[in-house]
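Friendly challenge for the regulars: who can give me the structure tokens for this chain first? No prize, just bragging rights.
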Amino acid sequence: QVQLVESGGGLVQAGGSLRLSCAASGSVFSINGMNWYRQAPGKRRELVAHITSGGSTNYAESVKGRFTISRDNANNTMYLRMNSLKPEDTAVYYCHAEALAPWGPVDYWGQGTQVTVSS
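First reply, four minutes later:
Bragging rights claimed.
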């Protein structure tokens, strides 16, 4: 089992910055890729950024150049640095881990952290 706990959300003005953290615990050795997703009211959950165990990254077009995903494997923590925030970035942000259990691949989710960007 893997537990994921997000932190760092809050209210920020447009143009501001936030850094989200995702602390993993439990069977962290089984984690491969990690992701940040977000879900705005009335919208589907969408992938924001992905990072592999080796540190390769991918981003949604809407956040490229503004968001940076990173991970500290030694401390089992993933981050999302968000700059130049826009009101449309307002959403609940979720940490997600892709893990490999003896019985196969498993997805783990955090509880989410609210990010609100005011105009």
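The longest strand covers residues 91-101. The mean pLDDT is 96. Your move, everyone else.
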